[in-house]
Amino acid sequence: MNLVFLGPPGAGKGTQAKKLFQEFGMPQISTGDILRDAVRRGTELGKKAAPLMEAGKLVPDDLVVGIAMDHLQQIDPVRGFILDGFPRTIPQAQALDAALKSSGQKIDAAISLRVPEETLVDRLSGRRICPKDGSVYHVSQNPSKRDGVCDKCGSPLLQREDDKPEKVRERLAVYARQTAPLEDYYQKQGLLRVIDGVGSPEDIYAQIKNVLSRS
Ligand code: AP5
Hints:
Elements: E1 2-6, H1 13-24, E2 28-30, H2 31-41, H3 44-54, H4 61-73, E3 81-84, H5 90-102, E4 109-114, H6 117-125, E5 127-129, E6 136-138, H7 165-179, H8 181-188, E7 192-196, H9 201-213
Parallel strand pairs: 1-3, 1-4, 2-3, 4-7
Antiparallel strand pairs: 5-6
Helix pairs in contact: 2-3, 4-5, 6-7
């Protein structure tokens, strides 16, 4: 199955995509993770993306479409995939559809996680990440066992620069302006599946599996 995860920053796209990967082995392609890795390594892409990401703005379509397609090509089509954070604009969605069509594939469902704005701000301002293994924590709702230290590898946890409150508001505004129209795009194709993203990650995961079993 080929899935797109939609939803504003902090909706839980990454959390749920990892669960699907753990249970079914469906690879997750997160353009946010790919871009952050490019920033860390100081590549040309990273240098272009860094100031935009820090400001909570989108990276230009031509840059993101190229990297997403490169990663998609490396995936075994039999296993399907989960796109997390891509597409984020209508031109990105159109480029994705065209590329999939040319290889005889398609998107099977677009899962949209709905979460109220105040909850999103709380989730993002409390999120802490492990820069080494990518583990995600929340200071109050999913804390690491030792304060500020990754349970799995012992590295110091970090707050993403774009998770600071003023950046979060900008990201939410960008989502409403540039990404929310994708719901309509997928609705028109009969692919949109809306999920209430408030509740425990396990409950939300159960809802997603339930919806997918009927897709
Ligand atoms: P990206 O990394 O994609 O960020 P995002 O979409 O803003 O998504 P997040 O990772 O912030 O949230 P999420 O929905 O994955 O939530 P998570 O599961 O982590 O993009 C970053 C930047 O890169 C963009 O701003 C842009 O600049 C650039 N970019 C990326 N893709 C692009 C594209 N296609 N085009 C252009 N630019 C692009 O959960 C968040 C927190 O909540 C965690 O602490 C988690 O533990 C907690 N949590 C999760 N679920 C629950 C729950 N059910 N209950 C309580 N807490 C929960």
